[in-house]
Amino acid sequence: MALNIFEHRGLPLDKQLLTWRDMVQVPISKLDDDAFTRVRVILMNGIELESIQFSRACTRMNKHLQLPLAQLRRIDPQQATLINGMIGADHSPLETTIAYEQVAIEVTAAVAQTEPDRYVAQIYRFGLLEDFDHMYRYSALLDRLEGKDSNNILQSYTDVLPGRPTIHEHRAPEDDLRECYNRNTALTLTKMHALTIMAGKQQTWNYYMNIGPLFSDPLARQLYAEIAHIEDQHVTQYQCIMDPGETWLEKCLLHKANEVYNYYGCVQQEKNPRVKAIWERFLEYELGQFRFVRDLFEYNENRDAQSVVPAVLPEPIAFESQRDFVRDVLRNEVNLRSKGTAFVDMSEESTASKVYRQRLNADGVPSEIVAFNYIWTPGGEINSLHRPMPVSHLKH
Question: E strands within the chain?
Fold first, then answer.
């Protein structure tokens, strides 16, 4: 059932507060909780962090909004702290990386199938195949460094196979740009999708940039560097989808609507009662925050908030395995490349991207080295066969 965002007032902003004990709760279990509980945790942490980052940028550009935005940011980091802390210490940083890629694959695939704009849906399918390959490369690294099977994290929801090879994903900046939707004609679902996927990818870039240098293995450090650069390209293409003609407060209103939209989807689909209670609490928080921004928007811009956000939000994103869809996209679109804002066959790829990639890969390609001779097999952590050949040195 869809949610009427204007009917529910939520919890007033001045009553939204978490204590330190509220913010640090018992984390989810790596093995006992369903993998999609972790998918929701990672996604919603990204959604919260994007809200904070947007608010900071907006504050720098709008003096008259500094106080209300500071009031909103007082609670947003508390929510993000609780959610981020739900990934427990039983996850190694590399296992958490596998989980991040599962989020990228399953959420992007679900969005691509319901996106009403055909061009935007193509953008999601394009990025999906690159995330799919990242999963394969990190799975090889997990096997190599920790002797673990990535399926312990994936729980058989997501395949571990090569996608569009990471070596071919590096592009010249002009080939990462995309056409934007029209703020006046685009459907709300398109706007919710764009904010959701961009937030998730921005969080992934941040995570890889911070975690990569903590590894002692030089190949691991190089692989994180390589894939982090692709994640930055993904953030570029996804943020290009949004109409730059939206005002600051219009974008702020959409951010808060998007938080409501995604928390509502979490509440509808969460199986863990303890985690579901957190989603329900934060849904009430976000409804209150949306009302706060709605009043701010209508007072400052002298227009009805429903001219930007309709009363009834779209149906939420489905948190479920998208294996068949991903396989179909892999079969039909793995050879696509981008040229400017268009998608073309690999034979038509721009010279600029080829030259850029050649220079970047001149000293070797970590994603190719790590996956050399790697074939995912069930139970890989106890099966010594088919392990990737060890790499004794890297070319520097």
Answer: 336-339, 342-345
175: Cα within 13 Å, side-chain hemisphere: 24
Would you call 394 helix, strand, or coil by DSSP? coil
Range 338-349 average pLDDT? 98
The backbone region for 27, taken as left when phi is positive above 0, alpha when psi lies in -120 to 50, beta otherwise, is: beta
Q: How many CA atoms lie within 13 A of 105 on its CB side?
A: 35
- DSSP β-bridge partners for residue 336: 345
The three-class DSSP label of residue 365 is coil
CA atoms within 13 A on the CB side of 35: 22
The answer to whether 347 and 200 have CB atoms below 8 angstroms apart is no
Query: Contact, 222 vs 153, CB < 8 A?
Result: no
Q: What is the mean pLDDT of the chain?
A: 95
In this prediction, residue 396 carries a pLDDT of 38
Q: Using an 8 Å Cβ cutoff, are 327 and 159 in contact?
A: yes
Return the pLDDT at 375: 84
Q: How far apart are CA 151 and CA 97, in angstroms?
A: 13
Rounded Cα distance between 168 and 153, Å, is 27
CB 301 within 8 A of CB 247: yes
Q: Are 98 and 142 in contact (CB under 8 A)?
A: yes
Entry pTM: 0.94
Average pLDDT over residues 221-229: 98
Q: Which of 4, 108, 131 is nearest to 318 (CA)?
A: 108
In this structure, are residues 288 and 5 in contact, taking their beta carbons and an 8 Å threshold?
A: no
Lowest-pLDDT choice from 110-114, 209-213, 311-315, 378-382:
378-382
Supply angle C-alpha 304, 309, 313, rounded to 5. 140
Token pair, residue 241, equals: 């989808």
User: pLDDT, tens digit, for every residue of 40-60?
Assistant: 999 999 999 999 999 999 999
* Three-point CA angle 366, 372, 377, nearest 5°: 120
